[in-house]
Amino acid sequence: MSQKVTRCPAETTLNFIGGRWKIPILWRLFSGVKRFSELMRDLKGITQKMLTQQLREMEQDGLIYRQVYAQVPPKVEYSLTPLGESLKPVVYTMIEWGKSQGAICPLSEGKKDELVSQVV
């Protein structure tokens, strides 16, 4: 991986996961492979165009794999790369920090123990 000069290394992290939808997409992919339609259904309020754009950016950044199956109708599945998997502790820490500030995270309920066991 090439090195980039930034004012702060946290900028690099934000370049990968910044934006409204990347963290929720990653969170859903932490539990395994998802089809485009599953992500659309799970991410309330996202448009098809925005989901496509976010997934393309994440694929270009090396965070996710995109597997296309040659069949009718087309089947596309998304999964995390090792780089994407390496963000689990980052996202978990962000969730815990948000909770300490009074935020409620319905996404993390029931998945906390599963995620902790994978991080530790």
| CATH architecture name | Orthogonal Bundle
What are the low-pLDDT stretches, counting only 5+ consecutive residues below 50? 112-120
**What is the rounded Rg?**
15 Å
- The gross shape turns out to be globular
| Major sheet strand order | 1-3-2
The main pleated sheet reads as: 3 strands, antiparallel
Order of helices and strands: HHEHHEEHHH
As for the CATH topology, it is Arc Repressor Mutant, subunit A
Mean pLDDT: 84
Q: Would you count the extended β strands for me?
A: 3
Distance between the termini: 25 Å
Task: Supply the helix-strand structural class.
Answer: mainly alpha
Q: Tags for this entry?
A:
120 residues; mainly alpha; Arc Repressor Mutant, subunit A; three-stranded antiparallel beta sheet; 3 strands; 12% strand; globular
What does this protein look like?
The chain is mainly alpha-helical. β2 (64-69) and β3 (75-80) form a beta hairpin. It has helices spanning 9-17, 22-30, 36-42, 48-60, 82-85, 88-100, 112-119, and strands spanning 34-35, 64-69, 75-80. 52% of the residues lie in helices and 12% in strands. The protein is built from seven helices and three strands, in the order ααβααββααα.
